[in-house]
Write a structure and sequence with these properties.
The chain has about 450 residues and is α/β, with parallel strands linked by helices. It has two domains: about 80 residues, no CATH class; about 300 residues, Lysozyme-like, CATH 3.40.80.10. Helix content is about 40%, strand content about 10%. α1 packs parallel to α3 and α3 crosses α4. The chain is elongated, with a radius of gyration of 35 Å. The structure holds zinc ion. Zinc ion (ZN) binds next to loops. The site of zinc ion has 5 residues, from loops.
């Protein structure tokens, strides 16, 4: 028995749409019957593997059945002419559509993969390259496998600014010079400082600071004050040559002391990577200062360290690491490296003694690294320090465990081992002083 149901809903809609071109209900009914019958006979609209091609065949049926029913004097309506044209050029249209679909699917798949990848935290070791000279992590730290080299280059340089390919934008209005870089790398565990390797010009690491400025609330009504305090800080830092970079409250990055010159930022300090130990880090590291007041409960918030600053810190870090082949292991905060030779304690300066957003900056967590001040040079920590940081850096007990193991192995008491390590520190310091190495006393 004949049925008026078209083969599928899409075909039904198309046939009904063309019905509108006929005025008489009788003609419409005739048209529908004929079109549906032909669809069934010719297998159109039966779930073809090539749906677009199927639609062309449907339109051919529609046109062939519709045109004889149109009034003789009328011209063929535009939709019908379009359908006829589409059918005539069905093969090229189909080919172009197929190619475009494949392209579109590829683009969507590529973007989806990028979005998924971007939503994962970037492992510290994959953000920037170590180059051939990059050293692995300190023992006990998160291991840093090979990172995929990322080339970041200077895109544009103008009056007072530089733009880099990763989005880093550096303002140079306050740029100044300083003493040329000169620093020494002591082979890990060396007993004599004479084994040191001298370096110049190229920085080996980055030390992050806060300005400890008392700053206005981060609100629009304080805009003028925020601007004024940033300029005052920059003028002060430039005059005193305190840092290589300052990131203000609006995430603007200013270069102050040029990269190839040492800023007076790290004072008495120690750090190490897997191969070398470093003392007095101003000479060998770039100092980056966030305009912020650090407290033990400092967090990422508009009134504390804000998102614009973190973003600026991330792209600046990536650019510097790419440019100088700085390893992740050598990117650390001031509190983590600062020591007091007179009191033999770590944490003389306390900026970023907690809450530095290592992951957000694209680095591994250095609070978790076996602390070189304790493990290699026998520095201690006191109750005041412990209270200030609230929660012990995991790297301190790690370092203390290593000391205990070494003491056990050498048959020394813990206190004797620490004293020997302190003597070692002092001999390295005297050796450096004899070579007139700049040992700054910055914040
Ligand atoms: Zn500092």
């Amino acid at each position: 028995m004949e049925t008026l149901r078209p083969p599928d809903q899409t075909s039904a809609r198309i046939i009904e749409a063309y019905c509108e071109l006929l005025e008489s209900p009788a003609l419409r009914l005739r048209f529908i019957r004929k079109a549906v019958a032909r669809c069934q006979d010719e297998g159109v609209g039966q779930g073809s593997k090539w749906p677009l091609f199927d639609r062309f065949r449907l339109r051919k049926i529609v046109v062939e059945e519709l045109v004889p029913l149109l009034p003789a004097e009328s011209t063929v309506p535009m939709p019908v002419r379009l359908a006829m044209t589409a059918y005539r050029f069905r093969v090229p249209i189909y080919a172009v559509s197929a190619v475009a679909s494949v392209g579109l699917v590829s683009v969507i798949a590529y973007l989806a993969v990028q979005v998924v990848l971007a939503s994962y935290p970037v492992p510290a070791d994959s953000i920037v390259p170590p180059v051939a000279t990059a050293a692995p992590a300190v023992a006990g730290a998160t291991d840093l496998p090979q990172y995929a080299p990322e080339q970041i280059w200077l895109v544009e340089q103008g009056d007072g600014y530089e733009v880099y390919s990763n989005g880093a934008r550096i303002l140079t209005e306050f740029e100044t010079d300083g003493p040329p870089r000169r620093y020494f790398a002591f082979p890990k565990g060396a007993t004599s400082p004479d084994a040191a390797v001298e370096h110049t010009a190229t920085p080996k690491g980055i030390v992050y600071h806060t300005s400890q400025s008392h700053i206005a609330p981060f609100k629009e009504e304080f805009n003028d004050k925020l601007q004024t305090s940033a300029r005052a800080l920059l003028e002060f830092v430039s005059r005193r040559r305190l840092y290589n970079y300052v990131i203000d409250r609006f995430g603007r990055v200013y270069r102050v002391v040029r990269d190839e010159d040492a800023a007076d930022h790290a004072g008495n300090s120690v750090w190490a990577d897997a191969e070398f130990e470093y003392l007095d880090l101003s000479g060998g590291t770039i100092g980056i200062c966030f305009e912020a007041e650090w407290r033990p409960d400092t967090k990422l918030a508009p009134d504390e360290i804000n998102e614009a600053q973190i973003y600026a810190g991330r792209v600046l870090t990536a650019m510097l690491r790419s440019k100088y082949g700085i390893s992740d292991a050598m990117c650390v905060t001031h509190a983590l490296v600062s020591v007091s030779p007179s009191s033999r304690l770590i944490g003389f300066h306390m900026d970023w003694a907690r809450a530095f957003p290592f992951a957000a900056i694209g680095l591994s967590d250095k609070y978790a690294v076996e602390n070189p001040g304790v493990a290699l040079f026998g520095f201690d920590h006191d109750g005041q320090f412990d209270r200030a940081i609230g929660e012990m850096w995991p790297g301190i007990p790690l370092a203390e465990r290593r000391l205990a193991e070494t003491a056990l192995a050498t048959g020394q008491k813990d206190v004797e081992l620490r004293r020997d390590l302190q003597l070692r520190y002092r001999s390295f310091k005297s050796w450096l002083s004899a070579r007139d190495v700049e040992a700054g006393n910055g914040e």
